[in-house]
Automatic annotation (TrEMBL):
<protein>
    <submittedName>
        <fullName>GNAT family N-acetyltransferase</fullName>
    </submittedName>
</protein>
<keyword id="KW-0012">Acyltransferase</keyword>
<dbReference type="InterPro" id="IPR051531">
    <property type="entry name" value="N-acetyltransferase"/>
</dbReference>
<keyword id="KW-0808">Transferase</keyword>
<dbReference type="InterPro" id="IPR016181">
    <property type="entry name" value="Acyl_CoA_acyltransferase"/>
</dbReference>
<dbReference type="InterPro" id="IPR000182">
    <property type="entry name" value="GNAT_dom"/>
</dbReference>
<feature type="domain" description="N-acetyltransferase">
    <location>
        <begin position="6"/>
        <end position="169"/>
    </location>
</feature>
<dbReference type="Pfam" id="PF13302">
    <property type="entry name" value="Acetyltransf_3"/>
</dbReference>
<comment type="similarity">
    <text>Belongs to the acetyltransferase family. RimJ subfamily.</text>
</comment>
<dbReference type="GO" id="GO:0016747">
    <property type="term" value="F:acyltransferase activity, transferring groups other than amino-acyl groups"/>
</dbReference>
Length: 174
């Protein structure tokens, strides 16, 4: 857990330059999240449309003492309308990493989803060599389900990912 007061809030217009810059900077994204150049204004357009709180995806700022440190996201998944689930993730600015902020941000997102949606299952995945994210998910109570082979393509090669889940009924760490 972070010793710092971590909270979540909707993305504001003031966050957009930092968010858009971060998502188009290979060094800011880090080795596990850089998948190549993309439309730098895609998030600004989605923010103008629905504040990044649409029907299928929610993106919330992770803040420490009102300072934007990154974001957490939840995307609605599931083939059947009667059994939706959410896939979650986090991305922090480099200076915010390694301090427990991402773990706490994801824990807060889990709490929010279980409090404000009827979802039973949450999922998250990460590359098999992203040990920091695996530890963060486990600290939030996620259970490792297995390895999905060649699920993502990054830096010229196919990579395996570890799939995690958390059920509403699972016992979570205090």
């Amino acid at each position: 857990m972070s010793e710092e007061p971590v909270s979540l809030r909707p993305i504001t217009e003031a966050d957009l330059p930092i968010l858009c810059g971060m998502l188009n900077d290979p060094e800011a994204l880090g080795e596990f999240q850089w998948f190549g150049w993309r439309d730098p204004d895609r998030f600004r357009r989605r923010w103008a449309e629905h504040g990044l709180l649409g029907e299928e995806q929610w993106i919330l700022a992770v803040v420490v003492r009102d300072e934007f440190c990154g974001f957490v996201a939840a995307s609605r998944k599931g083939m059947l309308p009667t059994a939706p689930y959410w896939s979650i993730g986090a991305q922090l600015l480099p200076q915010a990493r390694g301090r427990g902020i991402g773990t706490e941000g994801q824990r807060l997102l889990v709490d929010y989803l279980f409090a404000h949606t009827p979802v039973m299952r949450l999922e998250a995945d990460t590359e098999v060599t992203n040990y920091a994210e695996q530890r963060a998910l486990e600290k939030c109570g996620f259970i490792r389900e297995g390895v999905q082979r060649a699920k993502t393509f990054r830096d010229g090669e196919w990579r395996d990912v570890v799939l995690y889940s958390l059920l509403r009924t699972d016992v979570r760490p205090a």
